[in-house]
Amino acid sequence: MVRDDDLADVSFSMRDRVAVVTLDRPEARNAFTGAMGESLGAAYRRCDEDDAVRVVVVTGAGSAFCVGADLTPRDETFAAPTGRHFTSSPVQPPAFAIRKPVIAAMNGHAVGIGLTLAMQCDIRILARGATYGFVHVRRGVIPDAHSHWTVPRAVGFARATELLLTGRHVDADEAVAIGLATRAVPADEVLTVALTLARDLAVNTAPLSVAISKRLMWASPALSADDVNRLETAMHEHVMGRADAREGVLAFLERRNPEWSLSPTRDWPDDW
Helix/strand/coil (H, E, C) string of 75-107? Predict the structure, then answer.
């Protein structure tokens, strides 16, 4: 398991089964670095493998979420890649691939890769007064981090085309209105709102059920209706009649918090 002191440009904490991963370069408004990408991926792996983690919240230190790539190298910022291992998605695994819900608590500006990485999360909460934009084409590159897949599925093809091809900024309220995010709140409330949601998920939702549903949600655009029905049927058969299916009903009827026992790691469906 990755240790906290193994992380660079990212910090990690956990309380009440909620992991908080913080992009931690406040002096640079959390401008993205290679070290940040490696650390964020390591933190995601830690959360995926640790059953003590029920929900992940990703946020930024200071007044910004992430203002995009670190431009310190100036005209060499986007120099031609060297070596055989270049990828346009530098955080591995991406947030959508881990088996825990990932909430982006976007406490301030998020542009470029700061926004495309947030689009890999399951839920996004934005700060009013901040700006958001896929500005890559205005910097001579193209949108990254699976954004040609994540953005159309969130907002539809027509809106995605406008956002990705123009690189224009949107504010939080417009972003919510078009489907880039689910909520817009004052900046100083973003983390509180995210943690409240995360703690509700951590207590009241069955971890294995959430993990399976998340995997189906992210896979569904590439599947036919029959494929989805086949997988939903198989996954119902995987969870029905087991401990959590009994516990969820009893906890509701007895008006108490559920005690979930199935695990996304121990009880994950074979070959899936």
Answer: HHCCCCCCCCCCCCCCCCCCHHHCCCCEEEEEC
pLDDT in tens, 155-181: 999 999 999 999 999 999 999 999 999
Q: Which residues of 82-121 are buried (b: 16+ CB within 10 A; e: fewer)?
A: eeeeeeebbbeebbbbbbbbbbbbbbbbbbbbbbbbbbbb
The distance between the two most distant Cα atoms of the chain, rounded to a whole number of Å, is: 63
pTM of the model: 0.94
**Which of 182, 162, 160, 164 lies closest to 173, judged by CA?**
182
Question: What amino acid is encoded at 144 in this protein?
Answer: D
DSSP-derived pairing of the beta strands 110-111 and 169-171: unpaired
Stretch (H or E) spanning 2: none
Q: What tokens appear for 192 in the block?
A: 């509180």
pLDDT (mean) for 138-150? 96
Tens-place pLDDT, residues 21-65: 999 999 999 999 999 999 999 999 999 999 999 999 999 999 999
- Distance CA(211)–CA(60), nearest Å, equals 25
pLDDT higher than threshold 90 for residue 142:
yes
